Amino acid sequence: MEGYHRSVLLGEAIDALEVKRDEWYLDCTLGDGGHSLEIIKRDGKVVGIDTDPEALARAQKRFSEEGIKEDRFKLVLGNFRDLKNLLPASQRGEQTETKFAGVLFDLGVSSLQLETPERGFSFGKEGPLDMRMDPSLQVQAKDLLQVLSRKELYELFKNLGEEKYSWALANALVSAREIKTTVELARMVERVVGGKRGKVHPATRVFQALRIAVNSELDSLSEALPQALEVLNKNGRIVVISFHSLEDRIVKNLFKRWKSEGMGEVITKKPVMPSKMEVDENPRSRSAKMRIFQK
Ligand SMILES: C[S@@+](CC[C@H](N)C(=O)[O-])C[C@H]1O[C@@H](n2cnc3c(N)ncnc32)[C@H](O)[C@@H]1O
């Protein structure tokens, strides 16, 4: 795959973290390290977590190419839902980083994942229906299509894809259990719901629903955010960039609750969205929303 992941809301997110010299920041979604690199360039230090071993290898390579010194960052393999348990792995010499001046989540998949056909995230590229961000997970998207009942498939597409043709799709899928590739699934969805709806491919929501389920994305986020608040220093900020309404709702509601419990302040009354220029240059940023909470 060509080039590194194009970081969404890069300047806005790093400004929001108000990076201070030699303070530690926790990047829970390292990816290609775009956001982390910017924190380091502003003299911060980073513990970067990712559940995908390839992301760690690529970020490590990128940081060396950029001449970043090893003592400015530490990369940790794991799921951010285990955030607190993962932090001992960020031990450097005598010291373990357990408190941070800021925490960042840039949710969803990276270009690496999206554009590698064998990972199965993209309906435009023929590949196995896999969709695991963490390759050690047991269940792939194709397994869900085989084992879920008609009603479970319907609920999956309705709840996690907000797909209005969920019932028709669930019906079609129970008689096409042998579907194993991304393009086969995309074609089947096209047959059931018709061609393109505006700029959005008809299979977008089905793929989103399967990906969220395979990676337990909503549960992981709900479990990680309270841990992020715990490891945050007073006056530190949590910055979350999300890409669909289900994630954004979790973030928005939790931030509101924290405020009502006197845990801190919601900095973003309305979410920060990418500029038109950013959307034109990077269409993936179109649905991005960033919310900020200060402890
Ligand atoms: C959108 S990319 C991050 C891109 C990064 N900010 C950059 O600028 O290069 C999201 C990354 O988060 C990782 N990720 C998603 N969910 C995760 C989870 N629950 N735990 C750890 N990493 C996760 C994915 O594997 C992916 O590499």
Keywords, please?
295 residues; cytoplasm; methyltransferase; transferase; 42% helix; 7 strands; DNA polymerase, domain 1; 2 domains; Ribosomal RNA small subunit methyltransferase H; 7-stranded mixed beta sheet; binds S-adenosylmethionine; 14% strand; alpha/beta
How would you describe this structure to a colleague?
It contains 13 helices and seven strands. It is an alpha/beta fold and 295 residues long. Helix content is 42%, strand content 14%. It has helices at 10-17, 34-41, 53-65, 83-86, 111-115, 141-147, 150-161, 166-174, 182-193, 204-214, 217-230, 245-260, 276-281; strands at 24-27, 45-50, 73-77, 100-106, 232-242, 265-266, 289-294. A seven-stranded mixed beta sheet has the order 3-2-1-4-5-7-6, sandwiched between helices. Strand 2, helix 3 (53-65) and strand 3 (73-77) form a beta-alpha-beta unit. The termini are far apart. The structure holds S-adenosylmethionine. S-adenosylmethionine is lined by residues 5, 7, 29, 31-35, 49-52, 55, 79-81, 106, 108-110, 133, 220.
Strand content: 5-15%
Share of helical residues: 40-55%
DSSP, total strands: 7
CATH topology of the largest domain: Rossmann fold
CATH class descriptor name of the largest domain: Alpha Beta
Task: Tell me the number of structural domains.
Answer: 2
| Poorly predicted sequence stretches spanning 5 or more consecutive residues | none
Spatial strand order of the main sheet = 3-2-1-4-5-7-6
Overall geometry comes to globular
Number of helices: 13
CATH level-4 homologous superfamily of the largest domain = Vaccinia Virus protein VP39
Residue-averaged pLDDT? 93
Pfam families: Methyltransf_5 (PF01795)
Subcellular location: Cytoplasm
Enzyme class: transferase
Binding site for S-adenosyl-L-methionine: 33-35, 50, 80, 106, 113
